[in-house]
Design a protein that fits this description.
- The chain is built from no helices and 20 strands.
- With 203 residues, the protein is mainly beta.
- The protein is globular, with a radius of gyration of 16 Å.
- The termini are far apart.
Length: 203
């Protein structure tokens, strides 16, 4: 723990938690990881649990991280190859720049909002999934899976971050389910989608 300071980790190998649990492993204002082979691991409670206002993670492989604070977390992840899996049950996530060259991106929260600025899995046209459970809205900008599939399931609304005509989602297939509403009335509040196929289910 560094309080509101910066925790910087540079590993030539993996970065994992000692115990597979939901206890916070890192507390910081800014959490920065560079040159890691992988961060966290696949499996129950093997994600790195991080209480940080800002996360900046660069990994040659997969990234598994959960935000455990309470004030919201802005997340940047660059994975050269491998899945990116992010989640939180305690704070809203702003996906400042989340990018993998070859892996599925999955972001899931419970009772928390998701806001995207750049989320990109188009390097190998892999799937991109955004989910909120129980409550939580999703606001979209810069979401692209190339010719892959973007799947969004929101317990609340799905809107664009900015009321404009810029494409918010690029995909081969764009699938939305269980959203209260998709887009909004008013000038330029529609979701702008570049997709060969759209499948939208809204309450």
């Amino acid at each position: 723990t560094a309080g509101s300071g910066t925790v910087t980790i540079s590993s030539a190998g993996t970065i994992t938690n000692v115990n597979a649990d939901t206890t916070t492993e890192v507390t910081a204002g800014t959490f920065a990881v560079s040159a890691a082979t992988s961060v966290g691991a696949l499996g129950t409670n093997n994600a790195i649990d991080i209480d940080a206002t800002t996360m900046d993670i660069t990994s040659a492989g997969a990234v598994y991280a959960d935000a455990t604070g309470s004030g919201g977390s802005a997340i940047t992840v660059d994975a050269a190859a491998g899945a990116i899996t992010l989640g939180s049950t305690t704070e809203a996530l702003t996906l400042t720049s989340v990018d993998t060259d070859n892996g599925v991106i999955t972001v899931a929260t419970t009772d928390q909002n998701i806001v995207t600025t750049v989320v990109d899995s188009s390097g190998n046209n892999t799937a991109l999934n955004l989910t909120t459970t129980d409550t939580g809205n999703i606001s979209l900008a810069g979401v692209t899976a190339g010719s892959g599939t973007v799947t969004i399931s929101s317990a609340g609304t799905i809107t664009n971050v900015t009321a404009n005509t810029t494409t918010e989602v690029t995909a081969g297939t764009f699938t939305v389910s269980a959203a209260d509403t998709v887009g909004a009335s008013g000038t330029n509040n529609a979701i702008d989608i570049d997709a060969t196929t759209m499948d939208i289910t809204s309450a």
